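Morning, I've got a small favour to ask if you have a moment. I owe you a coffee for this, so here goes:

…
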Amino acid sequence: MTDNSQPARRVSLRDVAREAGVAPSTVSRALSLPDRVNDETRARIEKIAATLGYAKPSTATDVSRSRAVAVVVSDVTNPFYFGIIRGTQQQLKAAGYSQILVDTEESDQNEDDLLHRLRSSYDGVILSASRLADRALAALAAEIPLVAINRQTTGVASVFIDTPSGVVQAVEHLVSLGHRSIAYVSGPETSWSNESRWRAFAKATSAHAITPTRLGPYSPRQLAGAAAADAAINAGVTAVIAFNDLLAIGMLQRLASRGVRVPEDLSVVGCDDIFGADFCNPPLTTLAAPIEQTGRLAVSMLLARLDPQAAPGARNTATLPTYLTVRGSTGPAPTTKA
């Protein structure tokens, strides 16, 4: 017998927007700030919302506070998030809040559904490396108090880790070693930070009259590094900058199994400086950032929004720097491929 006891999915603001043929942000304004939307549009949206059974999520000021914050990551097994989680946990505990950890498994649909399904369980959200499109993220921020990490979207409070400038540092490092054939090993297509790193890479290489090469996309996991390494070998490049350390570490393993020497034949740069990056053979050159500080700062910004009187004039954005940590995986370009 089929079990039909599970409750139906809650109607979301995006569902109303889809039915009304307008942007989610327009629906949010019509239901929250009706004077900012013309009467005809507002009335149509209100009618559709009522027909669909949409219930506007309660805000932190009109519900009993749960004293909990949802911390959302795209892959809980990725060591990059360990620092984020430690930072948020420490700051939340100090403020008397509990932490709810949500793993979206790299899915934008899971991200949106889980946050709406769990809405009664948390006061606000720390959204790390969101896979939502800009419009969807802005609409979510209009419904739910949140701070995004590693994302820059209009209307969304954020703590941005400046990996694009780190990518530029990595390109300059490789160029100084004589490399003229460099590829960017791309992460997920749905990753906002992946695209920002690619744009920085393309601009930096073009500035040195180097044609930017892009390989991928690949899953941001170690297992995907084998395919990425094979692609780099086939492309004939002398250096690569990988989307993250997991991809780079997987590449190192595959290159070793194929007898490709690093860095003598191919230089490899990662991103994130995760635990274990310096234990690789050779140790991985990578981009480092104050990850735990990022989590703590995101929590401070969110709590200021949940209790604005405690911190009037709280800032909407913050940027933290990255820097290149040079280890053994990068070296002079091979003269035979120069």
